[in-house]
Amino acid sequence: MSRLVMNHLQYEFGLVPVKIVKEDKAEYIQALVDSREQESLETFREFMLCEHTRNITKEIEAFKKSQNGGPIIASSDPI
């Protein structure tokens, strides 16, 4: 539910929503656990920033390939 709210807020502010792919689910959950144990959002923020950067980079690469007539590789399914 919290990711739904987060994505809604990102949409409301004109930001690209963050997606978490299946392959990173365990790391996502660990970041949540670590943040709770440390009583700090820093671990979670760091994970989300890295995840968002990685996903946007993949999307840009796919877009560039589509513009050059190369094959388009679908991004992983979000969890």
Q: Estimate the strand proportion.
A: under 5%
Order of helices and strands: HHH
Number of helical elements: 3
Task: State the shape.
Answer: globular
Q: Find the count of extended strands (DSSP E, 2+ residues).
A: 0
Write the layout of secondary structure elements.
Blueprint: H1 2-12, H2 25-38, H3 42-67
Helix pairs in contact: 2-3
Structure description:
With 79 residues, the chain is mainly alpha-helical. The chain has a domain at 19-66. Helix content is 65%, strand content 0%. It contains three helices and no strands. The protein has helices at residues 2-12, 25-38, 42-67. The protein is globular, with a radius of gyration of 15 Å. The two termini are 13 Å apart. 4% of the residues are buried.
Question: Characteristics of this structure?
Answer:
mainly alpha, 0% strand, single chain, 79 residues
Quickly describe the structure:
This protein is mainly α.
